[in-house]
Specification:
The complex is a heterodimer of chains A (154) and B (497). Chain A folds into two domains: 92 residues, no CATH class; 50 residues, Winged helix-like DNA-binding domain superfamily/Winged helix DNA-binding domain (Arc Repressor Mutant, subunit A, Orthogonal Bundle). Chain A is globular, with a radius of gyration of 17 Å. Chain A contains seven helices and no strands. The relative contact order of chain A is 0.12. With 154 residues, chain A is mainly α. Chain B has 497 residues and is mainly β. Chain B folds into four domains: 106 residues, no CATH class; 100 residues, no CATH class; 117 residues, no CATH class; 121 residues, Immunoglobulin-like, CATH 2.60.40. Chain B is 11% helix and 36% strand. Chain B contains five helices and 31 strands. In chain B, the strands form seven sheets. In chain B, strands 22, 23, 24, 25, 26, 27, 28, 29, 30 and 31 form a ten-stranded mixed beta sheet that branches. In chain B, strand 10 and strand 11 form a beta hairpin. Chain B is globular, with a radius of gyration of 27 Å. The two termini of chain B are 43 Å apart. Classes of the chains: A mainly alpha (154), B mainly beta (497). Chains A and B meet through helix 1, helix 2, helix 4, helix 5 and helix 7 of A and helix 1 and strand 16 of B.
Chain lengths: 154, 497
């Protein structure tokens, strides 16, 4: 029953989750991040009855995996840069690389807030629920993100 | 979410475009019912990564939270090969075999065939080293001026698809794409919607009994098709197709089984009937309000023939792309460039631009094109004197050279409580088959976008009475891709007391 509920929720939100992951970590790793997140949700024996907002749960799971991935990638690149020196660790080219590069000036949480606000059309309250933070935090992050993007876009 | 200033609105639009572009090359979402995960091992300083592949397993619903895992080795350069432990025979039931290092994940191994693994890994993991980069998508479609002389360009962002084929609903609409996984939007496909709580009369050229259900089937000369059928629960199925004949439409509808209305996507399950002549599958599905996408449009003229062509680049969710292909006049050509669907509209002619001609414009040239008006606005405005209570009739002319239908709009100025309004009466309008929206520009700005219907009167606030300055007006019919199908000449209404 729980699995059915989560599976249905995943099926409904799969497209936006993979898109969200692409914005966060890039195309090459997006599938990994989503799968890791979903596997974590399923494997964690989540009590479906206790889940008020499955969409929020899935987004938060992907967000957390993206943060883990970002940290791991940063560590890996530092290590590679340290020991291998010449290795090219730049972001691979792709059709959306310019847009991602622009969004890369944001912190991961700011990127998440921007995605949820501008792609998912969520309001401040809904974003706060998805991320498990206060509405004030969302407003602050969104304002900072907009200010930063204004600089980049100008 | 946004402030009201123009600068903030522009910033919001720019950010929205960034977010859409940044996710435009998102891979396909992995299918939950056929999902396996790999776990990699390496020395402490190796790059340890996890990779995903696909293998057929039984129903996940039946297997509760059990997921299947197949081991695949990935080396530091992202070269993938099936692990030696990867089983090859096919077994419908997953068997618990291996462990992963992730304590919270149920660890099983599904048995699958190697070809499935290989093909899926290739698709899911684009080359990042040691191979050619994936082909670039197109976000600013243009062709060389000697092929087709540029006229203008447009961009549009869709956050939700409220209306397809000029039919909307107050309730969420599941949209499903049944097509060929290989041909994608370039081949024959059907877009199926299910409407709840609407009072919409099913009509068609022919009524066909499909398993006891009356289906109203229409096949148009241009290769499009439509089936509308009422379901026992009061909902209604509405299928639109491209490239499918009457028998194929009937076969598809026969293979559709309505889902429970509590399903997250309460559309249909699809099982192709045994004797079917077509091999189509349910490829994509979404609720209409969740659909996101972006269209970039380019309009150009071939000098030798004076034919006008419109080229659209559709990015975003697959459902959006399929809808963008079908909710418009029959394309001359459809192609896929990486994650972008390219559509060429216009008259068939040896000089016509093709999908292969389409390249990405540089940003400056694109902005210049976007700043130009459409070709109907190149001349001066048609000046009409209009008085309070009087009216002006203007022609609504098709700009598609293949169409000959001309219809008319009636414009009036009215006053209510010392405020002057412009009324646009659409009673005598005849709309193009793929009309989606009315777009009304007043004073050079878009003042209204509304669903394309006839027989209604649209009203726009002009200002406090009396109005003495001329009013520039242009009214158009646009399709789902934001391309103009019909338009008035630019009109300048000169109010007289």
């Amino acid at each position: 029953m729980v699995a059915e509920s989560l599976e249905s929720a995943y099926r409904r939100h799969a497209v936006e989750l993979i898109r969200y992951a692409t914005v966060m970590v890039g195309r090459d790793d997006a599938t990994d991040v989503v799968i890791d997140a979903i596997v974590g949700v399923f494997g964690g024996h989540v009590d479906g009855d206790a889940i008020v907002n499955v969409r929020a749960l899935l987004f938060r799971a992907v967000h957390n995996r993206a943060v883990d991935h970002h940290r791991a990638t940063t560590r890996r690149r530092s290590r590679e840069a340290l020991f291998e020196g010449r290795r090219d660790v730049s972001v691979p080219a792709g059709p959306a690389v310019d847009a991602r590069a622009a969004l890369a000036v944001l912190s991961l949480q700011q990127r998440t807030v921007v995605f949820l606000a501008y792609w998912c059309d969520l309001g401040v309250g809904d974003i706060a629920v998805v991320l498990g933070v206060s509405e004030g935090t969302v407003r602050k992050q969104l304002a900072r993100a907009r200010a930063r993007l204004r600089e980049v876009l100008e | 979410m946004t402030d009201s200033s123009e600068a903030d609105r522009e910033l919001d639009a720019a950010i929205a475009r960034l977010v859409i572009d940044a996710g435009s090359d998102a891979p396909d979402a992995p299918d939950m019912s056929t999902l396996t995960v790999t776990e990699l091992t390496g020395s402490r300083y190796d790059v340890t990564r996890r990779r995903v592949t696909v293998a057929a397993i039984g129903s996940l619903a039946a297997a509760a939270a059990v997921l299947a895992f197949v081991a695949i080795d990935v080396d530091d350069t992202d070269t993938l090969r099936p692990a030696e432990t990867a089983p090859t025979p096919t077994d419908p039931l997953p068997t618990i075999v291996a462990e992963t290092s992730e304590p919270t994940i149920a660890s099983t191994v599904a048995e699958t065939s190697e070809p499935t693994i290989a093909s899926t890994v290739t698709a899911a993991v684009p080359t990042t080293s040691g191979g050619a980069p994936p082909p670039a998508g197109i976000t600013r479609p243009v062709v060389a001026a000697d092929v087709c002389e540029p006229i203008s360009a447009r961009e549009g962002i869709s956050q939700g698809v409220p209306t397809l084929f000029a039919r909307g609903s107050n309730n969420p609409i599941p949209i499903q794409i049944i097509g060929d996984p290989t041909d994608g939007p370039t081949g024959a496909f059907a877009l199926v919607q299910r409407f709840f709580g609407d009072d919409y009369r099913a009509i068609g050229q022919e009524v066909v009994d499909i398993d006891g259900t009356e289906a109203h089937v229409t096949v148009y000369d241009n290769g499009n098709g439509q089936v509308i059928w009422d379901l026992a629960d009061g909902s209604q199925g509405h299928l639109r197709s491209r490239g499918l004949d009457r028998d194929e439409l009937v076969e598809i509808v026969a293979g559709l089984t309505p889902r429970a209305d509590t399903d997250p996507i309460p559309g249909f399950d699809y099982t192709a009937v045994q004797e079917t002549t077509i091999q189509l599958e349910l490829l994509h599905e979404q609720i209409n309000t969740d659909v996101r996408g972006k269209v970039a449009g380019f309009e150009c003229r071939v000098v030798a023939t004076d034919y006008v062509y419109r080229i659209s680049a559709l990015g975003g969710d697959p459902v959006y792309q399929y809808a963008g292909v079908i909710d418009r006049p029959t394309p001359l050509e459809v192609g896929v460039r990486s994650s972008t669907v390219i559509v060429v509209n216009g008259l068939a002619d040896p000089t016509a631009p093709t999908v292969d001609d389409v390249v990405d414009a540089d940003p400056t040239a694109w902005l210049d094109l976007r700043s130009r008006l459409g070709r109907l606005a190149e001349g001066g405005p048609l000046v009409s004197v209009i008085s309070e209570g009087g009216d002006v009739v203007v022609a609504l002319t098709p700009i598609d050279d293949t169409s000959t239908v001309t219809s008319y709009l009636t414009l009036r100025l009215t006053t209510e409580q010392d405020v002057t309004f412009l009324q646009v009466d659409t009673t005598n309008a005849v709309l193009a088959p793929d009309a989606a929206f009315w777009r009304t520009e007043i004073g050079g700005r878009v003042r209204g976008i509304s669903t394309a219907r006839t027989g209604s009167v649209m009203g726009f606030r002009i200002g406090e009475t009396p109005i003495t300055d001329p009013i520039d007006v242009k009214i158009s019919i646009i399709d789902g891709g934001d391309f103009v199908l019909q338009s008035t000449e630019p009109i300048q209404l000169s109010p007289q007391p």
